[in-house]
Specification:
Layout (H helix, E strand, L loop, with lengths): L4 E5 L3 E7 L4 E8 L4 E7 L8 E7 L1 H10 L5 H9 L5 E6 L23 E7 L2 E4 L12 E6 L1 H13 L15
Antiparallel strand pairs: 1-2, 2-3, 3-4, 4-5, 6-9, 7-8, 7-9
Amino acid sequence: MVDVKRVKLPGVGVLHTFVTDGGGKVGVITHRSGSSDLITFSDAEDGSKATKVALRLDDDEAHTLAELLGGTRITESLTNLDSIPGLTIDWFHVDYDDHIAGQVLGDLGPIGVVGVTVVAVVRGESANPAPDEHFKVFPGDTLVAAGSPEKVAKAFTYFRTGEVKLKGTVDAPSGD
């Protein structure tokens, strides 16, 4: 499975990139306006000038390209969810030295992380939707979490270090 990096571009949209086996880089900037930029570039290791190609696609053109490449419209659905105020959907790639590696997901509530849900664990080419607290996490897995940006960040800190920095109190559900 290709390791895709996802970066939010404030005021612009979201950038997804990955590196090919040949050393080239491919990126897609999904603008909030609905248009997309397809970017490819290679970093020449020998110091010669790197090459870069950028192509602006409208919504229909981006969908056509995705379908030609074997994609689906799942990305569109996730992008729409990203525009809901107060909701973040983010990915956590599990490395060997992360606290969560080799552990079960567990219940985050008792350790002070309330309001975050791991909606799926991606392992290899398959997704495990709605994993329960007994689901064992392995290095190489990618956890897909949903919640407020602050709480998702707190959960990711716990997944990485095993520690949660509490500010004197435990998070309580907002009740909204």
